[in-house]
Amino acid sequence: MRIDSRKLEKMAEWMEKREDIPKGWIYLGDNTECYFIGQPGKRNILVFLANPGTSNPGDNNIDSTIKKVKNLAAEDMYDGWIMAYLYPLRTKDSKELPENEDKKLLEKNLKVLIALTKAYKIDAVWASWGNTIDTRFYLGDILYDIQEKLECDCEWYYRGKMTSDGNPRHPKYIKSGEEYRWFPVCDYAANWRYADVYF
């Protein structure tokens, strides 16, 4: 999809004026790509999954993962939540992700994420991509750029326990009441970016 850079520069104003999405929602996507979806408030948590599924703005159009994220965020006193993605290509199953990345798509995603975090105050980042990150090298590699360039001064966290493979668990495996734990995203991402150096 084509993204207007001028609108990204005034993202909050653009989202507020849009008549094609429910009031209070923000969304950038189409049938094949989704860069973010959410309902920002005064205290926002930015949630990262590996890639988007089929959800669209509106309480009747979101999948079970986003419903759970909304509930968990509210439970932890975040009145706003925003879902973003390491790779913005929609698939019904992450196994359908391409073996090789579309570099232009990654560049667009990074540009959008930078604009997003400039436009909205982010109080915490929740890493929640599960073991999907292990299935495509480019997911871990682009994380390095994302965590380095986001325009927010906040910590990254995961919830509950890490997976047995050492990745932040997907929200569908998180139970109500499980605590946030500090996530060393810089070191984690560097292991992907510089994997060829060490192995």
Question: What do you see in this structure?
Answer:
The chain is an alpha/beta fold. It has one domain. The protein is built from 7 helices and 7 strands. It is globular, with a radius of gyration of 16 Å. It starts with a helix and ends with a helix. The relative contact order is 0.16. The model has no long low-confidence stretch (mean pLDDT 94).
Helix content: 25-40%
State the secondary-structure class. Answer: alpha/beta
Major beta sheet, specifics?
Answer: 7 strands, mixed
Beta percentage is: 15-25%
Question: Major sheet: order of its strands?
Answer: 1-2-4-3-5-6-7
Radius of gyration: 16 Å
What is the H-and-E element order? Answer: HHEEEHEHEHEEHH
- Coarse shape: globular
- Which regions are unreliable across 5 or more consecutive residues at pLDDT < 50? none
Number of domain modules: 1
Q: Mean of residue pLDDT?
A: 94
Please report the total strand number as a whole number.
7
Number of helices: 7
**Terminal-residue CA separation:** 37 Å
Can you give me a brief rundown of this structure?
This protein has 199 residues and is an alpha/beta fold.
Give a quick set of tags describing it.
7 helices; 199 residues; alpha/beta; single chain; 7-stranded mixed sheet; globular
